[in-house]
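$ ./design --mode recover --in tokens.txt
reading tokens...
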């Protein structure tokens, strides 16, 4: 990962104090957490499809 120059000193300080996630690989998450994420995303996708279908049937 190349080093990024901060925009200003305040942003550099904030980054050093709080930090932020970079280069997150979802395949390396624990199995239960991955499955929960898959379930969560699938649930919302199916819910949206269900709402769209019910709108057309109404």
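writing sequence...
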């Amino acid at each position: 990962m190349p080093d990024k120059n901060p925009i200003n000193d305040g942003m550099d300080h904030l980054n050093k104090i709080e930090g932020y996630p970079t280069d997150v690989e979802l395949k390396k998450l624990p199995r239960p957490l991955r499955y929960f994420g898959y379930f969560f995303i699938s649930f919302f996708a199916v819910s949206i499809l269900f709402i769209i279908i019910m709108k057309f049937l109404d």
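exit 0
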